[in-house]
Specification:
about 550 residues, alpha/beta, 10-stranded mixed β-sheet, 8-stranded parallel β-sheet, 13 helices, 24 strands, about 30% helix
Length: about 550
Protein backbone atom coordinates (compact mmCIF):
# COMPACT_ATOMS: atom_id res chain seq x y z
CA UNK A 1 0.00 0.00 0.00
CA UNK A 2 1.19 3.55 -0.79
CA UNK A 3 2.82 5.33 2.16
CA UNK A 4 0.38 8.26 1.99
CA UNK A 5 -2.60 5.90 1.91
CA UNK A 6 -1.29 4.10 5.00
CA UNK A 7 -0.79 7.41 6.79
CA UNK A 8 -4.31 8.57 5.95
CA UNK A 9 -5.75 5.22 7.01
CA UNK A 10 -3.99 5.51 10.36
CA UNK A 11 -5.21 9.09 10.73
CA UNK A 12 -8.78 7.95 10.07
CA UNK A 13 -8.45 5.21 12.68
CA UNK A 14 -7.09 7.66 15.25
CA UNK A 15 -9.89 10.10 14.52
CA UNK A 16 -12.52 7.36 14.78
CA UNK A 17 -11.18 6.38 18.18
CA UNK A 18 -10.98 9.97 19.42
CA UNK A 19 -14.39 10.92 18.09
CA UNK A 20 -16.44 7.76 18.56
CA UNK A 21 -20.16 8.52 18.32
CA UNK A 22 -22.00 9.07 21.58
CA UNK A 23 -24.32 6.49 23.12
CA UNK A 24 -27.42 8.67 22.76
CA UNK A 25 -28.20 9.31 19.09
CA UNK A 26 -29.39 12.72 17.98
CA UNK A 27 -32.72 12.82 16.17
CA UNK A 28 -33.12 15.44 13.44
CA UNK A 29 -36.58 15.94 11.93
CA UNK A 30 -37.02 17.66 8.57
CA UNK A 31 -40.51 18.45 7.26
CA UNK A 32 -40.48 19.41 3.59
CA UNK A 33 -44.19 20.28 3.80
CA UNK A 34 -43.55 23.13 6.28
CA UNK A 35 -41.78 26.10 4.63
CA UNK A 36 -40.31 28.68 7.00
CA UNK A 37 -38.95 31.24 4.54
CA UNK A 38 -37.05 31.84 1.34
CA UNK A 39 -33.58 30.37 0.96
CA UNK A 40 -31.74 33.58 0.08
CA UNK A 41 -28.24 32.64 -1.19
CA UNK A 42 -26.43 34.68 1.45
CA UNK A 43 -23.32 32.47 1.07
CA UNK A 44 -22.32 33.66 -2.41
CA UNK A 45 -20.40 36.80 -1.42
CA UNK A 46 -16.61 37.04 -0.93
CA UNK A 47 -14.01 39.76 -0.47
CA UNK A 48 -10.36 40.62 0.11
CA UNK A 49 -8.03 43.53 0.87
CA UNK A 50 -5.70 43.00 -2.05
CA UNK A 51 -7.69 43.83 -5.19
CA UNK A 52 -4.61 43.27 -7.36
CA UNK A 53 -4.68 39.54 -6.53
CA UNK A 54 -7.68 39.46 -8.88
CA UNK A 55 -5.36 39.45 -11.89
CA UNK A 56 -2.79 36.96 -10.57
CA UNK A 57 -2.52 33.25 -11.40
CA UNK A 58 -4.32 31.70 -8.47
CA UNK A 59 -6.64 34.68 -8.06
CA UNK A 60 -8.03 34.21 -11.57
CA UNK A 61 -8.36 30.47 -10.98
CA UNK A 62 -10.21 30.96 -7.70
CA UNK A 63 -12.63 33.49 -9.20
CA UNK A 64 -13.69 30.82 -11.69
CA UNK A 65 -14.24 28.33 -8.87
CA UNK A 66 -16.33 30.85 -6.94
CA UNK A 67 -18.48 31.41 -10.01
CA UNK A 68 -18.97 27.66 -10.33
CA UNK A 69 -20.04 27.00 -6.72
CA UNK A 70 -23.44 28.65 -7.07
CA UNK A 71 -26.28 28.72 -9.60
CA UNK A 72 -26.82 32.34 -8.50
CA UNK A 73 -24.47 35.23 -9.39
CA UNK A 74 -21.46 35.43 -7.06
CA UNK A 75 -20.42 38.87 -5.77
CA UNK A 76 -16.86 40.03 -5.04
CA UNK A 77 -15.88 43.01 -2.85
CA UNK A 78 -12.30 44.30 -2.71
CA UNK A 79 -10.48 47.14 -1.01
CA UNK A 80 -8.16 49.68 -2.63
CA UNK A 81 -10.05 50.27 -5.87
CA UNK A 82 -9.12 53.97 -5.76
CA UNK A 83 -5.80 53.83 -3.88
CA UNK A 84 -2.66 55.33 -5.48
CA UNK A 85 0.27 53.08 -6.33
CA UNK A 86 1.89 50.78 -8.85
CA UNK A 87 -0.76 48.06 -8.93
CA UNK A 88 1.36 45.51 -7.07
CA UNK A 89 -0.36 43.69 -4.22
CA UNK A 90 1.11 43.45 -0.72
CA UNK A 91 -0.44 42.14 2.47
CA UNK A 92 -3.42 44.40 3.23
CA UNK A 93 -2.58 46.71 0.32
CA UNK A 94 -3.33 47.21 -3.36
CA UNK A 95 -3.74 50.13 -5.72
CA UNK A 96 -5.17 51.28 -9.04
CA UNK A 97 -3.58 54.73 -9.45
CA UNK A 98 -6.82 55.88 -11.02
CA UNK A 99 -6.40 59.52 -9.94
CA UNK A 100 -3.43 61.89 -10.01
CA UNK A 101 -2.96 65.60 -10.72
CA UNK A 102 -0.63 66.99 -13.35
CA UNK A 103 1.95 69.77 -13.02
CA UNK A 104 -0.83 72.33 -13.41
CA UNK A 105 -2.91 70.74 -10.67
CA UNK A 106 -5.48 69.33 -13.07
CA UNK A 107 -6.96 65.86 -12.46
CA UNK A 108 -5.71 62.95 -14.52
CA UNK A 109 -7.80 59.78 -14.66
CA UNK A 110 -6.13 56.49 -15.61
CA UNK A 111 -8.24 53.31 -15.64
CA UNK A 112 -5.55 50.91 -16.89
CA UNK A 113 -5.21 48.93 -13.64
CA UNK A 114 -8.93 49.16 -12.86
CA UNK A 115 -9.73 47.68 -16.26
CA UNK A 116 -7.47 44.68 -15.62
CA UNK A 117 -9.23 44.00 -12.32
CA UNK A 118 -12.78 44.37 -13.59
CA UNK A 119 -12.02 42.51 -16.82
CA UNK A 120 -11.09 39.47 -14.71
CA UNK A 121 -14.37 39.77 -12.82
CA UNK A 122 -16.18 39.71 -16.17
CA UNK A 123 -14.16 36.77 -17.52
CA UNK A 124 -14.96 34.76 -14.41
CA UNK A 125 -18.63 35.71 -14.56
CA UNK A 126 -18.74 37.24 -11.08
CA UNK A 127 -20.26 40.58 -10.13
CA UNK A 128 -18.44 43.34 -8.24
CA UNK A 129 -19.42 45.10 -5.07
CA UNK A 130 -17.72 48.36 -5.97
CA UNK A 131 -16.25 49.58 -2.71
CA UNK A 132 -15.43 53.26 -3.17
CA UNK A 133 -12.10 53.59 -1.38
CA UNK A 134 -9.49 54.48 -0.51
CA UNK A 135 -8.31 58.08 -0.96
CA UNK A 136 -5.89 58.79 -3.84
CA UNK A 137 -2.65 60.38 -2.72
CA UNK A 138 -3.20 63.60 -4.67
CA UNK A 139 -6.71 63.98 -3.28
CA UNK A 140 -5.99 63.23 0.39
CA UNK A 141 -6.36 66.05 2.88
CA UNK A 142 -3.63 66.78 5.41
CA UNK A 143 -4.36 65.18 8.77
CA UNK A 144 -2.20 65.97 11.82
CA UNK A 145 0.06 63.07 12.72
CA UNK A 146 -0.35 61.30 9.37
CA UNK A 147 2.95 61.70 7.56
CA UNK A 148 3.01 58.81 5.07
CA UNK A 149 0.65 57.73 2.34
CA UNK A 150 1.32 53.98 2.44
CA UNK A 151 2.19 52.17 5.67
CA UNK A 152 3.36 48.61 5.06
CA UNK A 153 2.34 45.48 6.96
CA UNK A 154 3.09 44.43 9.70
CA UNK A 155 2.82 48.07 10.74
CA UNK A 156 -0.68 49.55 10.94
CA UNK A 157 -1.58 49.67 7.25
CA UNK A 158 -4.59 51.93 7.82
CA UNK A 159 -2.57 54.64 9.54
CA UNK A 160 -1.46 56.35 6.30
CA UNK A 161 -3.03 59.12 4.26
CA UNK A 162 -4.84 56.58 2.07
CA UNK A 163 -7.50 56.68 4.77
CA UNK A 164 -7.73 60.47 5.02
CA UNK A 165 -10.76 62.51 3.98
CA UNK A 166 -10.57 64.30 0.61
CA UNK A 167 -9.08 67.76 0.45
CA UNK A 168 -11.90 68.68 -1.93
CA UNK A 169 -15.25 66.89 -1.61
CA UNK A 170 -16.48 68.11 -4.99
CA UNK A 171 -13.36 66.64 -6.60
CA UNK A 172 -14.01 63.39 -4.72
CA UNK A 173 -17.56 63.33 -6.09
CA UNK A 174 -16.24 63.97 -9.59
CA UNK A 175 -13.73 61.10 -9.23
CA UNK A 176 -16.56 58.76 -8.27
CA UNK A 177 -18.66 60.01 -11.18
CA UNK A 178 -15.80 59.49 -13.66
CA UNK A 179 -15.07 56.06 -12.23
CA UNK A 180 -18.70 54.94 -12.47
CA UNK A 181 -19.07 56.47 -15.91
CA UNK A 182 -16.04 54.50 -17.10
CA UNK A 183 -17.44 51.24 -15.73
CA UNK A 184 -20.74 51.89 -17.51
CA UNK A 185 -18.99 52.69 -20.78
CA UNK A 186 -16.77 49.61 -20.62
CA UNK A 187 -19.22 47.00 -19.31
CA UNK A 188 -22.64 48.38 -20.17
CA UNK A 189 -25.42 50.06 -18.23
CA UNK A 190 -27.51 46.90 -17.82
CA UNK A 191 -24.63 44.94 -16.32
CA UNK A 192 -23.35 47.67 -13.98
CA UNK A 193 -26.91 48.27 -12.77
CA UNK A 194 -26.75 44.82 -11.11
CA UNK A 195 -23.65 45.74 -9.10
CA UNK A 196 -23.58 47.28 -5.61
CA UNK A 197 -21.75 50.53 -4.88
CA UNK A 198 -20.61 50.76 -1.25
CA UNK A 199 -19.08 53.92 0.18
CA UNK A 200 -15.78 53.26 1.99
CA UNK A 201 -14.96 50.61 4.58
CA UNK A 202 -15.34 50.71 8.38
CA UNK A 203 -15.43 54.49 8.75
CA UNK A 204 -16.11 54.13 12.47
CA UNK A 205 -12.52 52.98 13.16
CA UNK A 206 -9.03 53.75 11.84
CA UNK A 207 -10.00 53.17 8.21
CA UNK A 208 -11.36 56.74 8.27
CA UNK A 209 -9.24 59.60 9.63
CA UNK A 210 -12.16 61.94 9.96
CA UNK A 211 -15.30 62.56 11.98
CA UNK A 212 -18.62 60.77 11.46
CA UNK A 213 -19.99 63.99 9.98
CA UNK A 214 -17.14 64.07 7.47
CA UNK A 215 -18.01 60.51 6.49
CA UNK A 216 -21.63 61.50 5.93
CA UNK A 217 -20.36 64.23 3.60
CA UNK A 218 -18.09 61.72 1.84
CA UNK A 219 -21.12 59.44 1.43
CA UNK A 220 -23.31 62.22 0.04
CA UNK A 221 -20.78 63.23 -2.59
CA UNK A 222 -19.98 59.62 -3.51
CA UNK A 223 -23.61 58.62 -3.95
CA UNK A 224 -24.28 61.75 -5.97
CA UNK A 225 -21.30 60.95 -8.22
CA UNK A 226 -22.46 57.37 -8.79
CA UNK A 227 -26.03 58.41 -9.55
CA UNK A 228 -24.96 61.14 -12.00
CA UNK A 229 -23.24 58.45 -14.07
CA UNK A 230 -25.82 55.72 -13.45
CA UNK A 231 -29.18 57.02 -12.15
CA UNK A 232 -30.45 53.55 -11.21
CA UNK A 233 -27.25 52.43 -9.47
CA UNK A 234 -27.59 50.43 -6.23
CA UNK A 235 -25.81 52.52 -3.57
CA UNK A 236 -25.36 52.16 0.17
CA UNK A 237 -23.20 51.82 3.26
CA UNK A 238 -21.80 52.54 5.76
CA UNK A 239 -19.79 49.25 5.93
CA UNK A 240 -19.19 49.97 9.60
CA UNK A 241 -17.87 47.48 12.13
CA UNK A 242 -20.16 45.07 13.96
CA UNK A 243 -22.51 47.16 16.12
CA UNK A 244 -22.08 45.15 19.30
CA UNK A 245 -20.06 47.96 20.90
CA UNK A 246 -21.67 51.24 21.92
CA UNK A 247 -19.47 53.22 19.53
CA UNK A 248 -20.21 51.04 16.49
CA UNK A 249 -23.90 50.91 17.34
CA UNK A 250 -24.09 54.69 17.60
CA UNK A 251 -22.28 55.11 14.28
CA UNK A 252 -24.73 52.88 12.40
CA UNK A 253 -27.70 54.52 14.11
CA UNK A 254 -26.50 58.04 13.35
CA UNK A 255 -25.72 57.17 9.73
CA UNK A 256 -29.27 55.91 9.26
CA UNK A 257 -30.61 59.08 10.89
CA UNK A 258 -28.51 61.11 8.47
CA UNK A 259 -30.03 59.25 5.51
CA UNK A 260 -33.54 59.46 6.99
CA UNK A 261 -33.67 63.10 8.08
CA UNK A 262 -30.62 64.81 6.61
CA UNK A 263 -30.16 66.74 3.40
CA UNK A 264 -27.40 65.92 0.97
CA UNK A 265 -24.28 68.04 1.39
CA UNK A 266 -24.16 68.20 -2.41
CA UNK A 267 -27.58 69.60 -3.29
CA UNK A 268 -29.78 69.69 -0.20
CA UNK A 269 -31.96 66.88 -1.51
CA UNK A 270 -32.91 63.55 0.05
CA UNK A 271 -30.04 61.12 0.55
CA UNK A 272 -30.25 57.83 -1.40
CA UNK A 273 -29.81 54.56 0.48
CA UNK A 274 -30.52 51.28 -1.33
CA UNK A 275 -28.84 48.85 1.07
CA UNK A 276 -27.31 48.84 4.55
CA UNK A 277 -23.97 47.19 5.35
CA UNK A 278 -21.97 46.43 8.48
CA UNK A 279 -19.40 43.86 9.64
CA UNK A 280 -20.11 41.31 12.41
CA UNK A 281 -17.01 39.38 13.50
CA UNK A 282 -16.21 36.57 15.92
CA UNK A 283 -13.31 36.43 18.36
CA UNK A 284 -11.18 33.26 18.56
CA UNK A 285 -8.61 32.93 21.35
CA UNK A 286 -6.13 30.34 22.55
CA UNK A 287 -7.26 28.67 25.80
CA UNK A 288 -5.14 26.00 27.51
CA UNK A 289 -3.17 25.44 24.33
CA UNK A 290 -6.10 25.10 21.91
CA UNK A 291 -8.25 27.42 19.84
CA UNK A 292 -11.59 28.52 21.25
CA UNK A 293 -13.90 30.17 18.74
CA UNK A 294 -16.09 33.19 19.51
CA UNK A 295 -19.23 32.56 17.47
CA UNK A 296 -21.36 34.44 20.01
CA UNK A 297 -19.48 37.66 19.25
CA UNK A 298 -20.33 37.52 15.55
CA UNK A 299 -23.98 36.63 16.09
CA UNK A 300 -24.54 39.27 18.78
CA UNK A 301 -23.11 41.94 16.47
CA UNK A 302 -25.44 40.79 13.70
CA UNK A 303 -28.43 40.74 16.05
CA UNK A 304 -27.75 44.26 17.26
CA UNK A 305 -27.37 45.52 13.70
CA UNK A 306 -30.64 43.85 12.68
CA UNK A 307 -32.43 45.42 15.64
CA UNK A 308 -31.14 48.86 14.68
CA UNK A 309 -32.28 48.50 11.08
CA UNK A 310 -35.65 47.10 12.16
CA UNK A 311 -36.24 50.19 14.32
CA UNK A 312 -36.47 52.37 11.17
CA UNK A 313 -39.76 51.62 9.36
CA UNK A 314 -38.50 53.34 6.21
CA UNK A 315 -35.36 51.18 6.10
CA UNK A 316 -36.52 47.88 7.62
CA UNK A 317 -37.20 46.40 4.17
CA UNK A 318 -33.85 47.42 2.67
CA UNK A 319 -31.35 44.71 1.78
CA UNK A 320 -28.75 44.14 4.50
CA UNK A 321 -25.29 43.16 3.30
CA UNK A 322 -22.96 41.87 5.99
CA UNK A 323 -20.06 42.94 3.80
CA UNK A 324 -17.58 41.22 6.11
CA UNK A 325 -18.92 38.39 8.30
CA UNK A 326 -16.09 36.26 9.67
CA UNK A 327 -14.73 34.40 12.71
CA UNK A 328 -12.33 37.32 13.34
CA UNK A 329 -10.95 40.47 11.80
CA UNK A 330 -7.58 40.07 10.03
CA UNK A 331 -7.40 37.81 6.98
CA UNK A 332 -3.73 38.70 6.41
CA UNK A 333 -2.67 37.76 9.97
CA UNK A 334 -1.50 34.17 9.58
CA UNK A 335 -1.49 31.63 12.38
CA UNK A 336 2.27 32.33 12.62
CA UNK A 337 1.34 35.85 13.70
CA UNK A 338 -1.73 34.89 15.72
CA UNK A 339 -1.93 31.24 16.88
CA UNK A 340 -5.68 31.59 17.44
CA UNK A 341 -6.04 31.65 13.66
CA UNK A 342 -5.02 27.98 13.39
CA UNK A 343 -8.72 27.13 12.92
CA UNK A 344 -8.50 28.31 9.30
CA UNK A 345 -6.95 25.24 7.68
CA UNK A 346 -9.18 22.40 8.90
CA UNK A 347 -12.83 21.34 9.27
CA UNK A 348 -13.58 23.68 12.21
CA UNK A 349 -13.85 26.70 9.90
CA UNK A 350 -16.60 25.16 7.69
CA UNK A 351 -18.51 23.82 10.72
CA UNK A 352 -18.42 27.31 12.27
CA UNK A 353 -19.63 28.77 8.97
CA UNK A 354 -22.52 26.31 8.66
CA UNK A 355 -23.64 27.14 12.20
CA UNK A 356 -23.38 30.86 11.45
CA UNK A 357 -25.44 30.57 8.25
CA UNK A 358 -28.34 28.86 10.07
CA UNK A 359 -28.12 31.31 12.99
CA UNK A 360 -28.16 34.34 10.70
CA UNK A 361 -31.28 33.03 8.96
CA UNK A 362 -32.89 32.58 12.38
CA UNK A 363 -31.95 36.14 13.36
CA UNK A 364 -33.26 37.44 10.05
CA UNK A 365 -36.60 35.77 10.78
CA UNK A 366 -36.64 37.03 14.36
CA UNK A 367 -36.06 40.68 13.43
CA UNK A 368 -37.97 40.50 10.12
CA UNK A 369 -35.18 42.13 8.15
CA UNK A 370 -34.03 41.59 4.58
CA UNK A 371 -30.63 39.90 4.92
CA UNK A 372 -29.23 39.15 1.46
CA UNK A 373 -25.49 38.65 2.08
CA UNK A 374 -23.06 37.06 4.50
CA UNK A 375 -19.82 38.07 2.79
CA UNK A 376 -16.78 35.99 3.74
CA UNK A 377 -13.67 38.15 3.79
CA UNK A 378 -11.45 35.40 2.43
CA UNK A 379 -9.76 34.85 -0.93
CA UNK A 380 -6.13 33.81 -1.48
CA UNK A 381 -2.57 35.11 -1.06
CA UNK A 382 -0.01 34.66 -3.82
CA UNK A 383 3.56 33.64 -3.07
CA UNK A 384 2.95 32.47 0.50
CA UNK A 385 3.64 29.11 2.12
CA UNK A 386 1.19 26.27 1.78
CA UNK A 387 -1.37 26.30 4.61
CA UNK A 388 0.36 29.20 6.34
CA UNK A 389 -2.88 29.93 8.15
CA UNK A 390 -4.22 33.00 6.39
CA UNK A 391 -7.98 33.37 6.26
CA UNK A 392 -8.23 32.11 2.70
CA UNK A 393 -10.35 29.85 0.54
CA UNK A 394 -7.31 28.31 -1.14
CA UNK A 395 -3.55 28.13 -0.73
CA UNK A 396 -1.31 28.11 -3.82
CA UNK A 397 -4.26 26.93 -5.88
CA UNK A 398 -5.27 24.18 -3.41
CA UNK A 399 -8.82 24.56 -2.11
CA UNK A 400 -9.14 24.50 1.67
CA UNK A 401 -11.98 22.74 3.53
CA UNK A 402 -13.93 25.95 4.10
CA UNK A 403 -14.55 26.43 0.38
CA UNK A 404 -16.51 23.19 0.38
CA UNK A 405 -19.14 24.44 2.81
CA UNK A 406 -20.01 27.11 0.24
CA UNK A 407 -20.19 24.41 -2.42
CA UNK A 408 -22.63 22.59 -0.14
CA UNK A 409 -24.71 25.76 0.26
CA UNK A 410 -24.78 26.11 -3.53
CA UNK A 411 -26.55 22.73 -3.77
CA UNK A 412 -29.44 24.02 -1.66
CA UNK A 413 -32.34 25.83 -3.31
CA UNK A 414 -35.97 26.81 -3.08
CA UNK A 415 -37.54 27.37 0.33
CA UNK A 416 -36.15 26.81 3.80
CA UNK A 417 -38.23 24.18 5.56
CA UNK A 418 -38.83 23.20 9.16
CA UNK A 419 -36.10 21.35 11.03
CA UNK A 420 -35.72 20.30 14.66
CA UNK A 421 -32.90 18.52 16.44
CA UNK A 422 -32.56 16.94 19.86
CA UNK A 423 -28.92 18.03 19.74
CA UNK A 424 -29.56 21.68 18.94
CA UNK A 425 -28.16 24.44 21.16
CA UNK A 426 -30.88 27.12 21.19
CA UNK A 427 -29.91 30.35 19.48
CA UNK A 428 -30.52 32.28 22.71
CA UNK A 429 -27.94 30.10 24.45
CA UNK A 430 -25.40 30.58 21.66
CA UNK A 431 -25.90 34.34 21.88
CA UNK A 432 -25.41 34.35 25.64
CA UNK A 433 -22.51 31.91 26.01
CA UNK A 434 -21.50 30.43 22.66
CA UNK A 435 -21.13 26.68 22.15
CA UNK A 436 -18.99 25.88 25.18
CA UNK A 437 -20.74 22.92 26.86
CA UNK A 438 -22.55 20.35 24.72
CA UNK A 439 -21.93 20.29 20.98
CA UNK A 440 -24.42 21.97 18.66
CA UNK A 441 -25.69 19.11 16.48
CA UNK A 442 -28.19 20.81 14.24
CA UNK A 443 -29.38 21.28 10.67
CA UNK A 444 -31.21 23.47 8.24
CA UNK A 445 -32.91 22.29 5.08
CA UNK A 446 -34.39 23.41 1.79
CA UNK A 447 -36.91 22.06 -0.70
CA UNK A 448 -36.53 22.89 -4.36
CA UNK A 449 -37.97 21.55 -7.60
CA UNK A 450 -37.89 17.75 -7.30
CA UNK A 451 -35.09 17.94 -4.78
CA UNK A 452 -34.31 18.65 -1.14
CA UNK A 453 -31.14 19.25 0.84
CA UNK A 454 -30.23 19.01 4.50
CA UNK A 455 -27.04 20.61 5.86
CA UNK A 456 -26.09 19.27 9.29
CA UNK A 457 -23.10 19.63 11.58
CA UNK A 458 -21.54 18.82 14.92
CA UNK A 459 -20.01 22.12 16.02
CA UNK A 460 -18.22 23.20 19.19
CA UNK A 461 -16.27 26.38 19.96
CA UNK A 462 -13.41 24.32 21.43
CA UNK A 463 -10.99 22.88 18.87
CA UNK A 464 -10.22 19.71 20.81
CA UNK A 465 -10.94 16.02 20.08
CA UNK A 466 -14.20 14.75 21.53
CA UNK A 467 -16.90 12.22 20.84
CA UNK A 468 -19.07 12.98 17.87
CA UNK A 469 -22.72 12.01 17.49
CA UNK A 470 -24.80 9.23 16.01
CA UNK A 471 -27.43 11.08 14.02
CA UNK A 472 -30.75 9.87 12.67
CA UNK A 473 -32.24 12.21 10.07
CA UNK A 474 -35.90 11.71 9.22
CA UNK A 475 -37.10 13.63 6.18
CA UNK A 476 -40.88 13.80 5.79
CA UNK A 477 -43.19 15.64 3.43
CA UNK A 478 -41.84 13.99 0.28
CA UNK A 479 -44.59 14.12 -2.39
CA UNK A 480 -46.94 11.16 -2.11
CA UNK A 481 -46.33 9.96 -5.66
CA UNK A 482 -42.58 9.58 -5.05
CA UNK A 483 -41.52 6.04 -4.14
CA UNK A 484 -37.73 6.35 -4.28
CA UNK A 485 -35.24 9.19 -3.88
CA UNK A 486 -31.55 9.41 -4.79
CA UNK A 487 -29.30 10.34 -1.86
CA UNK A 488 -25.96 12.08 -2.41
CA UNK A 489 -24.25 12.51 0.96
CA UNK A 490 -21.35 14.98 1.01
CA UNK A 491 -19.02 15.39 3.98
CA UNK A 492 -16.32 17.74 5.31
CA UNK A 493 -14.34 16.33 8.23
CA UNK A 494 -10.82 15.23 9.09
CA UNK A 495 -10.75 12.66 6.28
CA UNK A 496 -13.16 14.07 3.66
CA UNK A 497 -12.99 17.23 1.53
CA UNK A 498 -9.83 18.11 3.47
CA UNK A 499 -6.68 18.96 1.55
CA UNK A 500 -4.97 20.04 4.77
CA UNK A 501 -5.06 16.51 6.17
CA UNK A 502 -3.61 15.12 2.92
CA UNK A 503 -0.87 17.76 2.88
CA UNK A 504 0.15 16.95 6.45
CA UNK A 505 0.17 13.23 5.66
CA UNK A 506 2.61 14.00 2.83
CA UNK A 507 4.98 15.53 5.36
CA UNK A 508 3.79 19.14 4.85
CA UNK A 509 5.81 19.81 1.66
CA UNK A 510 6.38 23.43 0.65
CA UNK A 511 7.49 22.30 -2.81
CA UNK A 512 5.15 19.41 -3.61
CA UNK A 513 5.91 17.24 -6.62
CA UNK A 514 3.63 17.35 -9.63
CA UNK A 515 1.96 14.14 -8.46
CA UNK A 516 1.52 15.48 -4.92
CA UNK A 517 0.09 18.75 -6.21
CA UNK A 518 -2.41 16.86 -8.35
CA UNK A 519 -3.44 14.81 -5.32
CA UNK A 520 -3.85 17.97 -3.23
CA UNK A 521 -5.99 19.59 -5.92
CA UNK A 522 -8.29 16.57 -5.88
CA UNK A 523 -8.40 16.48 -2.06
CA UNK A 524 -9.59 20.10 -2.03
CA UNK A 525 -12.85 19.27 -3.79
CA UNK A 526 -16.19 18.46 -2.16
CA UNK A 527 -16.25 14.73 -1.48
CA UNK A 528 -19.06 12.21 -1.16
CA UNK A 529 -19.13 10.28 2.10
CA UNK A 530 -20.34 7.22 0.20
CA UNK A 531 -21.61 6.35 -3.25
CA UNK A 532 -24.99 7.80 -4.23
CA UNK A 533 -27.82 5.42 -3.43
CA UNK A 534 -31.56 5.07 -3.95
CA UNK A 535 -33.74 5.07 -0.84
CA UNK A 536 -37.27 3.72 -0.56
CA UNK A 537 -39.86 6.26 0.51
CA UNK A 538 -42.47 5.07 3.03
CA UNK A 539 -45.45 7.30 3.85
CA UNK A 540 -43.58 10.30 2.41
CA UNK A 541 -40.57 9.69 4.66
CA UNK A 542 -36.98 8.47 4.51
CA UNK A 543 -34.63 7.98 7.43
CA UNK A 544 -30.85 8.31 7.12
CA UNK A 545 -28.44 7.26 9.85
CA UNK A 546 -24.90 8.60 9.99
CA UNK A 547 -22.00 9.13 12.39
CA UNK A 548 -21.08 12.79 12.61
CA UNK A 549 -17.67 13.55 14.15
CA UNK A 550 -17.12 16.78 16.08
CA UNK A 551 -16.48 19.71 13.68
CA UNK A 552 -17.90 17.71 10.76
CA UNK A 553 -20.38 19.13 8.23
CA UNK A 554 -22.63 17.03 5.98
CA UNK A 555 -24.98 17.78 3.11
CA UNK A 556 -27.66 15.21 2.34
CA UNK A 557 -28.92 16.00 -1.16
CA UNK A 558 -32.10 14.19 -2.27
CA UNK A 559 -33.40 14.07 -5.85
CA UNK A 560 -36.55 12.54 -7.31
Amino acid sequence: MHKLAITLLCAAAIQAAAQAPSANPVSIQVDLAKPVGAYTPIYRWFGYDESNYTTMKYGKELLGELHDLSPEPVYIRAHHLLTSGNGVAELKWSSSNVFTVDANGKPVYDFTITDKTFDEFQKAGVRPVVELGFMPKDLAAKVPGVNEYQVRYPKNTISGASNNPPRDYALWGELVRRYTEHLVQRYGKDKVSTWYFEVWNEPDIGYWHGTPEEYYKLYDYAVDGVRKALPNAIVGGPASTGPASEKASAFLNNFLKHCLNGKSAVNGKAIPLDFISFHPKGHPTVIDGHVQMGLANELNAAAKGFSIVASYPKFAHLPIILSEADPEGCAACSMKVNPANAYRNGPLYPAYTATAIKSLFDLRDQYKVNLIAMLSWAFEFEGKEYFEGFRTLSTNGIDKPVLNVFRMAGLMSGERVSTSSTGQIPLSNILSSGVRNADDVDAFATKGNREAAVMLWDYHDEDIPAAGADVQVTISGIPSNIKRVLLEHYRIDETHSNSYRVWKAMGSPQTPTEAQYSQLKEAGQLELLSSPKWLDVNDGKVTIVTALPRQATSLMHLKW
